[in-house]
Amino acid sequence: MGELIEGGSQTIDGQIKETVTNSSIEGYVTEFSRMGSFRKIGNLLEADAKGKVSRKLIEDSLKERYKELGKPKFLMIIDETILGKSNNSISENAIVKKFIEFDFLEKSQLARVLTKQSGKSVTIYGNQTLETEVLSTASEMGAQILLVGQTQVTNAGEIENSELKSYQAVIRFKIYDVNTKRIIAAD
Hints:
It is built from four helices and ten strands; from the N terminus they run E-E-E-E-H-E-E-H-E-H-H-E-E-E. The protein is an alpha+beta fold. The strands form three sheets. Strands 5, 6, 7, 8, 9 and 10 form a six-stranded mixed β-sheet that branches. A two-stranded antiparallel ribbon has the order 1-2. Strands 3-4 form a two-stranded antiparallel ribbon. The longest helix has 15 residues, at 55-69. The relative contact order is 0.13.
């Protein structure tokens, strides 16, 4: 099991104003066990778990799938909430930057369709009806892979004996094969 730690800081006039350190474990879960009981949050069922992660397995799996598809057209829509405020680009930009081998489609057409339905921005992840409609729209746009996700960043409080704050991010996603409408990965 490996851990990816990334950090950065913001300085203004030579003084550090903000320091951010992100820690995450990325890869394919080979075994896990649930800790505690399930929690129901809207349409989602959530639980804490611990397990072993293999980054190499996920890389091998993606390379194999990439060989099958060629250079797939990829569409994503991630509902993002940071400290209670709606946002729409940080997670998506990070994914585009990480997976440069994919051909990412512009989601503005998809966003217009979703906004037209309700007159406002809607949460897609976990809503089966909207996920099905998004799959159909993705197909019309020529996408082969669709990522539907949700990112929530919350303040976990101050770090003891420091002026630093801890933030917690929860990322949920489903990756669909648009042609078969099957989920090919989820977290």
